[in-house]
Amino acid sequence: MIISGKTKICAIIGDPVGHTVSPAMHNAAFQKLGLDYLYITFRVAPEQLSRAVVGLKALNVAGFNVTIPHKVAIIPLLDSLDPLAEKIGAVNTVVNINGKLKGYNTDAEGFYRVLLEHGFSPQGKKVVLLGAGGAARAIAYILVEQGCRLTILNRLQELDWAENIAQFILDDLQKEVQFFELGDIAEALPGADLLVNATSVGMSPEDNVSPVPAPLLKKIPLVFDIVYNPLKTRFLREAAAAGAQIITGIDMLAWQGALAFEKWTGKAAPVDLMRREAVKILERHED
Ligand code: NAP
User: Fold this and answer.
1) Which residues are catalytic?
2) Is the domain defined by 108-247 classed in CATH 3.40.50.720?
3) Ligand 1 atom with the shortest distance to the CA of 200
4) Does 108-247 match 8-104+251-286 at the fold level?
5) Cβ partners under 8 Å of residue 203, min gap 6
6) Which pTM value belongs to this model?
7) pLDDT tens-digit profile of 81-125?
8) Domains of the chain, residue spans
9) What number does CATH give the domain 8-104+251-286?
10) Which of 199, 209, 203, 151 is nearest to 177 (CA)?
């Protein structure tokens, strides 16, 4: 990669950022398409966020990703928001449009693209979603918007997060969402066409746990775990053993990156290459 006087800069801001696979995905994609762009990481502590955003704007970066813990806090620091990001209340991608910073949420659309890629048509389907955190909120919104019947399960002590998502969807889309505590999963699962894990349960280093007892995974045709480290979680291994078709979190990661890439460059992203690059890095972590 040759850095020139015209090289455009993209970045990711978060805290921490040392684990991110985004530079590998994006730099490989820039190189493949012969684009004079470079993607780098910036560790930004919460109390430095507003100064960092002013700095990125002053330096005229082409755009940047936003990760934990800044996805919500960045919103008031931007010039405008895409309607989907505004509804979800979280931003993971920022585009510099003629000196103005516009926020997007490509997690939701990335998740949805993966479902389409696997031949899942959402209209009228029953979906059970585990978790009520930031990613679950984005996923819940897009699933209901696309016509799914949704049930959200979260831990009892934080059930009001699930209730909060259900209320926001009712207000915005006029669609009812059911919510239960995770302990009631056996009652919620029968008839589900798709089961999604959007909790962080099973994420490395605590990767020998699953959010769902294995015997309950029978008869669920499609199971999606958005956790991408490890590449195949215990939850997915047990779902596959029970006969389900499975979708890994790396697919969503590649697609959310691909959609950001397209917004920064205006070019179709080489999503398969981006997925392969992400897998390479994560396999190295697993060694
Ligand atoms: P978050 O906002 O912190 O939410 C975490 C969720 O996990 C909450 O619902 C939390 O429940 C639940 N949870 C945590 N520990 C639990 C436990 N022991 N038992 C039951 N539930 C538990 O995080 P997030 O940003 O939504 O991310 C969630 C996961 O998705 C992370 O692993 C992240 O890496 C992954 N992710 C993947 C992609 C992708 O592109 N593949 C994109 C975004 C996120 P409480 O509310 O009860 O605390």
Assistant:
1) 71
2) yes
3) 32
4) yes
5) 227, 229, 233
6) 0.94
7) 999 999 999 999 999 999 999 999 999 999 999 999 999 999 999
8) 8-104+251-286, 108-247
9) 3.40.50.10860
10) 151
